[in-house]
Amino acid sequence: MLSVIPQPPRCDHAAVWPALHHHALALRKGFDLRHAFADDPGRFAHFSQEAPHCFADLSKNLWDAPAEALLLRLARECAVEQQRDAMFAGEHVNGSEGRAVLHALLRCPRGESPPGLAWALAQVHETLDAMLAYAERVRADAGITDVVCMGIGGSGLGPQMAVQALQGMCGARRRMHFVSNVDGHELQSVLDGLQPRSTLFIVASKVFNTQETLTNARSALQWFHAQGGEDVARHFVALTTNASAAAQMGITITFGFWDWVGGRYSLWSAIGLPVALAVGAAAFRDLLAGAHAMDHHFRTAPLQANLPVRLGLLDVWNRNLLGFASRCIAPYHAGLRRLPAYLQQLEMESNGKRVDRQGRPLALGSAPVLWGEPGTDGQHAFFQMLHQGTDIVPLEIIAVQRPSHGLQGHHEQLLANALAQAQALMQGRSCDDGHRHFPGNRPSTFVLLDALTPAALGALIALQEHRVFVAGALWGLNSFDQWGVELGKLLARDLQQRLASGDVAQLDASTAGLLQRMRA
Length: 520
Ligand code: F6P
Hints:
Layout (H helix, E strand, L loop, with lengths): L16 H14 L2 H7 L3 H4 L1 E4 L2 E4 L7 H13 L2 H9 L29 H23 L5 E5 L6 H9 L9 E5 L4 H8 L7 E6 L6 H16 L5 H4 E4 L3 H6 L5 E2 L17 H7 L1 H20 L6 H15 L4 E7 L6 H13 L17 E4 L10 H6 L6 E8 L7 H18 L16 E8 L2 H22 L10 H16 L7 H11 L1
Parallel strand pairs: 3-4, 3-5, 5-6, 6-7, 8-9, 8-10, 10-11
Antiparallel strand pairs: 1-2, 2-11
Helix pairs in contact: 1-4, 4-14, 6-12, 7-12, 12-13, 13-18, 14-18, 15-18, 19-20
């Protein structure tokens, strides 16, 4: 059933690419957002987009309708729709690893399987049901007061981000702790104050050979036994595609997933157990439903009214046609404080590549640098640079219409600040004193969720996944491998031995010098 799709052209080989360059050049010389709004009363309506659980305003970006029309032609020439359909159909779009990419199947309701994937969907629901039943059993167990989730990258960031985002639904009875780093300070500070009989350890690792996670799991097991803990089966659970490796460590309760789920796309799989434990099975199903609604939008909405497509096209426009090398993410919701870190992995691990699918060097920039902090904190830290710095950095604001707290006045202030930043970046303010002059005409995108519910969070994350897919498809990348993380892992293994032995033979002078100093 599975086949490798024929390679569509990448954006810089598309026939429309020179016209886009030409248009961007003209725009860079004379485009001004303030005039664009003054000249076109329909600009907001044209550049805003409804999508499941959210609304996005793309109108304060440095583009115009002809630019978007050319970009839509680009999407067609680069066969974005065919590439999308190939992914949803289970074709081997992850060519360098020979794998299908089916994270969207994890949120597909029973009975709605794409043709030929009913077998996989049946496995998905069987595991989901078992994982959620387990989550409910633990939730009903008053003896478990603390859950320590150990996992890194896609096995840590997603669950942590989602649990924080949905904190309001979590209840105070059970504390959730997250440990990702191999730095023992992190694990130690979590273990201090815990009791083995009231703690559940979740070891989350797709491959189950990730150094950080296994080191933390071994130390947690040691601690558990040293503190008099006995029943490992009750207190340790593994989430992995490699159950036998978990069993070798003595962890026998395992929830699995499949090689067609990439680590950074795995929140929807058993890796989501911490979320299910925190918010319950029904809310976890709502998270999946929200993501599925966005999948449906991405698969069926025409390109010009398709939010992930429009955002992905805007990303390529900003990166390659206007030359902006970074994007700042400012969630205006404290619950989304780990969203920038989550999106960093999603986008920079997916599209931070220098060769295309065929291994040919790219002739243009790929993933921008993503960074950010929640607003309003960021406003008092680095927004200075967004307003008056020498580089233009597109800002993406993610705000939430309805708060889940009852404190008077806070949310209005928060939303007013979000609006004000986008407005100030665009409008600027003229002043003869250069220090007080704001140039304005600086781009921003505004995403507004109706409320930070599980469904809206699911839709937001799926939206981001798909916009990354669209940009990767235009750049001609395999967005689903991550070979760039391997070299450092390999060298760390060698250097760990050298740190023990003191052997610096064949090392460069800097590494040798540092290593010797560490040993002194
Ligand atoms: O090092 C990168 C990476 O492979 C990520 O892609 C992944 O999410 C993370 O490590 C953790 O991997 P695992 O879940 O297999 O432990």
